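Extended Data, record F-box domain-containing protein
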Amino acid sequence: MDLRGQSLFEVAKDAHGKSQQRASVSGQLPGIDTKSINHMPDKILLHVFSYLKHKELCHIASGCKKWRMIANDSCLWF
């Protein structure tokens, strides 16, 4: 997941396209509203987490398995 050189708009556009593909494959209706942070693509969460300090990343990693996996991404720990 290399996000360098991409704007948040580009990341969101890419993630939206992939979620639309998953929705059509899974049979989910494209008009269903899923506005939960848990439904956000990993790429978007990684971009959001990149603004956190290391101490905050440690706290956020205890939220759930998905957040722990993203918070431990090597690009956040440079």
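Summary. The domain at 8-76 is CATH 1.20.1280 (Monooxygenase).
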